[in-house]
Amino acid sequence: xxxxxxxxxxxxxxxxxxxxxxxxxxxxxxxxxxxxxxxxxxxxxxxxxxxxxxxxxxxxxxxxxxxxxxxxxxxxxxxxxxxxxxxxxxxxxxxxxxxxxxxxxxxxxx
Length: 110
Hints:
Layout (H helix, E strand, L loop, with lengths): L16 H16 L6 E5 L6 E5 L8 E6 L2 H4 L5 E2 L8 E5 L8 E7 L1
Antiparallel strand pairs: 1-6, 2-5, 3-6, 4-5
């Protein structure tokens, strides 16, 4: 998994209020531009029918949106969430099993 990092707004800040406000505004502007720290790169397990995805940003209510990023990934049905396997920190994607490498961008929603 790789993560594009955008700094979160600080909860506490020991400096000037004006500097703290700037950090919060920068974070909010990033959110408005779609930079929400909620996209991960996933490679499906080869010759398996499920792949476990683990990430601290995953909650039991998170839904993945899978976007294929290579030719082999475009050739298969999009992986789907096994709803009974969602917990804080991970979920399981079910998919077809073959010997090719399939990569996806996965948007974490919720």
